[in-house]
Specification:
mainly alpha
């Protein structure tokens, strides 16, 4: 087996559990939004979406990107037999996350009326909802920290079981119960937030077990002096970058609620809910290629690095592009899932988002490559540029063209960040994610899904479910045939290691 094939099999095996968990979480989140938009008015749904978006931004702020720093130092210190250094970083990051979470939670609770007024929720139940989220905020912050710390020990199962399965499914069940019983917005907010509150003690308990198993007693002479400062020197640029990314993901919903109305925020939220669905496979692959890139860069295996970079980009496109192409081609059918009044306002938002995500996925894991090659400053600059573009265009365009302006701003941010990363990786490392394989995948997706489904939309058949289903089924068969023909070029045989029966054999190779 070649070096490239060996690395690709390891990436495929490593992504199996992540794919399963991410799939459940993404689908549950999608259904939650659909339940809320169908069970409540657009204004009521928009109030919840605006308040929860602010909550998620604050949770990201409390996290300060510490997961990246823990991922870098925990295993390094364990290899160096420095358990005291690991404990020092864990104590410090736990204290920082808990403190920031508590401060933000208390501040949000006390200032809820003023914050609700600032984000356009003063005439609704905004104050009460913000106070619900304020109570949950410290728990969400410490729970996220504990799961991030467990992943730093290379323990992904806790994240899958607690966050992707328990939290996501509990939230789905509680929201469905609220909708079924026709409860008010405050009860709905508790249904949305309570699983995060309950996940925190489970995450802490799981991390405690992992730490007891993996951390030996420190040696008498071991010192942890300077460990915390080393941690933060590395982590702070990624802290800013991660917070910027969360703001880009959620700020547009908050701004729409403030500048237009909560009802418009509900339409925009529904119109953008398909984005995480296409990221299920991409994010799973992304999580496991980071150490692979690091290893290949450290060993100067440029040929394998180039091949893995290009092939994983093709994999990402093969997984994500069909989802974005299908939904972007029949936005009317997609938006009809969320109830009446969503199609006309949200159609162009869906199309713009789909096009932006096609470009973003095609650029490959350029940000991961920058980080793993030690160019975190470039990644930070790209994130800040994208954030500035998004916020500037949001405030310029939303008052003029409504939620389509927010979609334009978001698309400009995503595409600019992807293009900057592409150019930087090309110039600094001489690598490109593009290849003949990715080009053929793109043509296959456009031919099998994009063109025929777009034709249905143009001809006015985009809401004919049975006709769309028939064209989609034919497209799936044709697309499967194309991938079969491309199996050697795309190294699709490596994906056999996703099957349980192949893991042991793959591990022995």
């Amino acid at each position: 087996m070649s070096t490239t094939a060996r690395h690709l099999e390891r990436i495929a095996r490593g992504g199996t559990l992540s794919v399963a968990g991410a799939g459940v979480a993404a689908l549950s989140g999608f259904v939650v939004v659909a339940l809320i938009t169908n069970g409540y008015s657009k204004s009521e749904a928009g109030v919840l979406f605006s308040a929860s978006s602010l909550f998620l931004v604050l949770v990201a702020l409390a996290g300060l990107g510490m997961e990246v720093g823990l991922g870098r130092f925990v295993m390094r210190y364990l290899v160096e037999a420095r358990p005291a250094a690991v404990r020092a970083d864990l104590r410090n990051t736990a204290a920082v996350s808990t403190t920031i979470g508590l401060v933000l939670g208390v501040a949000l609770f006390l200032a809820a009326p003023q914050v609700a007024s600032a984000i356009g929720l003063a005439d609704a139940a905004g104050t009460d909802l913000l106070r619900v989220f304020a109570v949950a905020l410290p728990f969400a912050a410490i729970g996220n920290w504990a799961l991030g710390a467990s992943r730093a020990f290379q323990e992904i199962r806790l994240t899958v079981l607690i966050d992707k399965l328990f939290r996501a499914l509990a939230q789905l069940a509680l929201v469905a119960l609220c909708v079924g019983l026709a409860r008010g917005l405050v009860e709905l907010a508790w249904a949305w937030a309570l699983p995060m509150l309950l996940s925190a003690p489970l995450a802490l308990w799981g991390l405690r077990r992992v730490a007891r198993r993996r951390l030996p007693a420190p040696a008498a002479a071991e010192s942890s002096v300077g460990v915390v400062s080393e941690f933060w020197r590395f982590t702070w640029p990624r802290s800013i970058a991660q917070i910027s990314q969360m703001v880009i993901q959620r700020a547009d919903i908050i701004i729409i609620g403030a500048l237009i109305s909560p009802a418009a925020a509900a339409v925009y939220t529904a119109a953008t809910r398909f984005v995480p669905l296409g990221q299920i496979g991409v994010q799973a692959v992304q999580q496991v290629i980071q150490p692979r890139f690091t290893e290949l860069l450290a060993t100067d295996d440029t040929e394998s690095l180039r091949d893995v970079f290009r092939i994983t980009t093709s994999w990402n496109m093969a997984l994500a592009w069909p989802i974005y192409a299908v939904i972007g081609s029949v936005p009317q059918l997609y938006l009809s899932i969320f109830g009446e009044g969503f199609v006309e306002q949200g159609r162009w938002v869906v199309v713009l988002m789909a096009v932006a995500m096609l470009a973003g996925v095609a650029s490959g894991p350029v940000d991961t490559m920058l980080l793993m090659s030690g160019r975190s400053s470039l990644s930070l600059v790209n994130s800040l540029v994208a954030l500035a573009i998004d916020l500037t265009l949001c405030f310029l365009l939303i008052p003029r063209v409504g939620i389509v302006g927010a979609a334009v701003a978001w698309c400009a941010a995503v595409v600019s960040r992807a293009l900057l990363g592409y150019v930087q990786v090309r110039r600094t490392l001489g690598l490109s994610p593009l290849s003949t394989g990715s080009g053929r995948v793109a043509l296959a997706v456009v031919g099998c899904f994009g063109l025929p489904l777009t034709a249905l939309s143009v001809l006015g058949q985009g809401l004919n479910l049975w006709l769309v289903a028939l064209v989609f089924a034919v497209g799936v068969l044709a697309y499967g045939g194309v991938l079969w023909k491309l199996r050697s070029r795309l190294h699709l045989s490596a994906l056999r290691s996703l099957l349980p029966g192949r893991r042991r054999k793959g591990g022995e190779q």
